[in-house]
Amino acid sequence: MGKHTAFFHNRPTIAATYSVAGKKEGDGPIGKVFDYVFEDEYFGEKTFEKAECKMLSTAINGGISSCGCGKSDIDAIVSGDLLNQIVSASFAARDYNIPYIGIYNACSTMSEGLAIAAALTDGGYMSRVAVATSSHFSTAERQYRYPLELGSVRPPQSQWTVTGAGCAIVSAGGKGPAITAATFGKVVDYGITDANNMGAAMAPAAMDTLITHFRETGRTPSYYDLIVTGDLGAFGSRVLKHITGENGYDISFNHVDCGEIIYNIDEDEYQGGSGAGCSAIVFNSYIYRKLKDREINRVLFLATGALLSTITTQQGESIPCISHAVAVENEAL
Amino acid sequence: MGKHTAFFHNRPTIAATYSVAGKKEGDGPIGKVFDYVFEDEYFGEKTFEKAECKMLSTAINGGISSCGCGKSDIDAIVSGDLLNQIVSASFAARDYNIPYIGIYNACSTMSEGLAIAAALTDGGYMSRVAVATSSHFSTAERQYRYPLELGSVRPPQSQWTVTGAGCAIVSAGGKGPAITAATFGKVVDYGITDANNMGAAMAPAAMDTLITHFRETGRTPSYYDLIVTGDLGAFGSRVLKHITGENGYDISFNHVDCGEIIYNIDEDEYQGGSGAGCSAIVFNSYIYRKLKDREINRVLFLATGALLSTITTQQGESIPCISHAVAVENEAL
Predict the structure, then answer these.
(1) Which end of chain B is more exposed for a tag (fewer CB within 10 A), N or C?
(2) What is the distance, to the nearest Å, from the Cα of residue A310 to the centroid of all Cα atoms in its chain?
């Protein structure tokens, strides 16, 4: 069996982060930690798609500024989003005189990008890489499900796509929390076909990567202060704890899911937040700050993605899922 | 300005390749070099999308076999395609117990993937990485343009989406042509809005990456035996030669475009082939064999991509383009 975990020995650091969130997310329980909250869901643009693109640019610009460097100091933008042909990322990248590496693993894109950026900087190929991803409730809803105007009733196991964009600047050397390892996930498909029940579909993928990570690193759950998944939601998070526990790894004491903490759970959101922007804004604000402030020192971050499209659903396919894990750690004092 | 070129000093090699092509491609001028040609455009599946997915699996399996190794020797599959949410790649990856890194830069995905795989292997993070991409005339046509049944007339500047999938196995060390450098492209947009005129839209992106490559490596066009672009087509290739020449780099003597050589140009194909599968099958058969046989020893391969979607076209956006370059070289005897 090939090895799934890459170790980064030169401490590629997350030098800075930035998060851009919509009003609903800004009103949520961790809303105060987002760097920028906008009120109008069009973000001053004519279409939701252009709004999403602007969110992503705003996050990238914010990351670069927070890093104390300029655009010319960034060697690449590693970015992707949920729209067909990842157009938010591609159109955002158009405004920079910086190489663009487009990636897509659905809502696992943030941790996928961090892993790629860690390899590019740790290996000495680049000095600083901006990793960014986004989602927008209104672009995702009309692409994946139904026109908003239809007013479809949402089933209780559904989640709410987060409007937000997050960016991390990964730097060769320097100070700050470092990406010390990445476990790349494989595709896991348990045959679930309900596109409204993503949390349950994605939990086995998160478990697979988690257990692979523990086996290949020799670590146990207690090595980490927090094990953070992307957007399993409340139900999916319970599923993950349960099935991981059954396999001998108890994560019930230190597991948190970004989708579960982003909203005050009420009728609309049901199981919590989802979308590539969900883990992107929570990791690049709430989690990153806790690391910077040394409230926590070791985090395993696993964004989780469902790799379906409307056409695969129409053709009766089940939902393949994936999760990539990155270990982010402070240096011992 | 950041550096756009990464140098790989540990000679990550392309240990093996495999190409799967449709009947039309098999009947073309270089049809005999493809490893596998299938007659039925459904490839024995019920839908064109499932056929594309099977093409990709066939290419990955072929690459692994040609390499003389097993699936368990592959540390990651780096793959993407043109379908929404790159579902061909994701669903193909489902059949392997191997980490999956989804990427998307439209028809520039093959060289993007080779560059990422080179970094992952050269840096010591992985031993062997399968890089694969595909396109299928019938899936692309109905997603990007019109239903096939409509029988729309194609304008003379249009190209024909290649049905094909290619795979390269990039290996840490070993024998064979090595990826010695990669120049990552930035997004270039000259304001072209005609989705039937991709060659002209993409040529400036190829030029930008080419010139950046020459400047950052100190090389001139004559360093290479061949400078291979992806799918500019006949007109786009002429545009590239012209504008690159105007900037002081004459590539007229050693430039070839995969899209230009894949078909016997007649009425249907107009400017030649396009699609992520175009450069994937030409590079992973015709070009790779010439390298292996030492007919040529230094190749610069620039797959070229147009980063549009139907929604950006509908919203009146122009076409952002990109091209990533990889230098593939034999060791001196």
Answers:
(1) C
(2) 21
Closest to B310 (Cα-Cα) out of A93, A137, A83: A83
* Interface predicted TM-score (ipTM) of this complex, two decimals: 0.96
CA of A89: which chain B residue's CA is closest?
Answer: B307
Nearest chain B Cα distance for residue A101, angstroms: 7
Distance CA B191, CA B193 (A): 6
Note the pLDDT of residue B48: 94
Are both A5-171 and A178-329 of the same fold? yes
Please write the tens of the pLDDT for every residue from A249-299: 999 999 999 999 999 876 566 789 999 999 999 999 999 999 999 999 999
Residue with tokens 């070009």: B287
Q: Answer yes or no: do A100 and B322 touch at CB < 8 A.
A: yes
Residues of B (69-98) whose Cβ lies below 8 Å from A: 72-76, 80, 82-87, 90-91, 93-94, 96-98
Q: Identify the residue whose tokens are 């950041």.
A: B2
Residue type, B103: I
To the question of domain B8-171 being in CATH 1.10.10.10, the answer is: no
Rounded Cα–Cα distance for residues A251 and A264 (Å):
23
Neighbours of A127 (CB within 10 A): 19
**Interface residue of B95, B125, B188 to substitute, partner A, most A CBs within 10 Å:** B125
DSSP conformation letters of B231-251: S-HHHHHHHHHHHHHHTT---
- A104, B317: Cβ pair inside 8 Å? no
Which is nearest to B188 in space by CA: B200, B196, B174? B200
Do A102 and B105 lie within an 8 Å CB cutoff? yes
User: Could you report the per-residue pLDDT of B92-114, keeping only the tens digit for each?
Assistant: 999 999 999 999 999 999 999 99
Chain A residues touching B189 at Cβ < 8 A? 94
The shortest CB-CB distance from A99 to any of B72, B96, B185 is to B185
At the topology level, CATH places domain B178-329 in Peroxisomal Thiolase; Chain A, domain 1 (3.40.47)
pLDDT tens-digit profile of B240-266? 999 999 999 999 999 999 999 999 876
Residue A107 forms contact with B (CB below 8 Å): no
Q: What is the amino acid identity at position B244?
A: T
Dump pLDDT digits (tens) for B171-201.
Answer: 998 889 999 999 999 999 988 888 778 888 8
Confidence check: pLDDT of B268 > 90: no
Topology of domain A5-171 in CATH is: Peroxisomal Thiolase; Chain A, domain 1 (3.40.47)
Residues in A touching B47 (Cβ below 8 Å):
315
Spans of all domains in chain A: 5-171, 178-329
pLDDT at residue B247 in the model: 97
- The reply to whether residue B87 touches residue A311, judged by beta carbons under 8 angstroms, is yes
Verify whether the Cβ–Cβ distance A6 to B96 is below 8 Å: no
Contact with chain A for residue B127, Cβ under 8 A: yes
How confident is the model at residue B141, as a pLDDT?
A: 82
